[in-house]
Specification:
With about 210 residues, the protein is mostly helical. The protein is about 45% helix and about 10% strand. The strands form two sheets. The protein has a three-stranded parallel beta sheet with strand order 4-3-5, covered by helices on one side. Strands 1-2 form a two-stranded antiparallel ribbon. The structure holds a DNA duplex (20 and 20 nucleotides). Belongs to the LysR transcriptional regulatory family.
Length: about 210
DNA sequence: CAAAGGGGAAACGAGCTGCT
DNA sequence: AGCAGCTCGTTTCCCCTTTG
């Protein structure tokens, strides 16, 4: 397929559908009507010879081909967006720009000191501002550029954003020295039989471990 | 100026949910 | 189990804009 054969706006709609998983929601986000998105999807289905999205009780589920397409399309649209909106080139050594990071408490404690050390060395005039990534508006803030980067377990950002796996994280159990569990190996059954405290905090994944 | 294409409105249909 | 109501995607038709 040649690029001239495809309306790039169809890829914008495809990208939004990957995010919203609903035609009407994508239409609202893009500022067009739901039939318009439906028609665009129809044209895209014919062009790409794939259903792309299947209607299910959970919304419009992307086909394997659509999932395969999602990342390169998102990357390409991001590149085009950056190219059209760049005003000046970025020079870390002289830039006085403020970057806003959405992080968890562990982000503040662990990442910031490491980051600030590097920033002091390579971009001394840069300003780093942080916000908690527990905010329900994180997705919107990222989309409009109020937040530049978010670190954490953020399933609400699965589609439409650049993502990178940073590290693997394991948990440990803590209990008093005299606790009955101290005399035997910790197993899943033993763990489940004991009372324990889990600090549920959005963006940390602690609740996922308990589940 | 005619043809083509895209968007909006209305109608329709499928699937889900709650109630009896 | 069956029905009604609701939500949401699709289809059809019409209008407007663009293009050659």
């Amino acid at each position: 397929m040649q690029l001239r054969d495809i309306d790039l706006n169809l890829l914008v709609i495809f990208n939004q559908l990957m995010i919203d998983k609903r035609v009407s929601a994508a239409a609202e986000t893009l500022g067009i009507t739901q039939p318009a998105v439906s028609n665009a999807l129809k044209r895209l289905r014919v062009l790409l010879k794939d259903e792309l999205f299947l209607r299910t009780s959970r919304g419009m589920e992307p086909t394997p081909f659509a999932q395969q397409l999602a990342e390169p399309v998102n990357y390409a649209l991001g590149t085009i967006h950056s190219a059209l909106n760049q005003q000046t080139s970025f020079d870390p050594a002289t830039s006085t720009r403020t970057f806003t990071l959405a992080v968890t408490d562990i982000g503040d404690i662990y990442f910031l000191p490491v980051l600030m050390e590097e920033v002091m060395r390579t971009a001394p005039q840069l300003c780093i501002s942080t916000v908690r990534n527990t905010a329900v508006s994180l997705k919107e803030n990222l989309e409009v550029g109020k937040v530049d980067l978010a670190i954490g377990l953020l399933p609400q950002l699965q589609g439409g954003f650049f993502q990178r796996h940073l590290f693997k994280h394991r948990y440990v159990c803590m209990f008093r020295r005299e606790h009955p569990a101290a005399s035997q190996p910790m197993t899943l059954d033993l763990f489940q039989s004991l009372e324990h405290v889990v600090v549920i905090s959005a963006g940390t994944g602690h609740g996922e471990v308990d589940t």
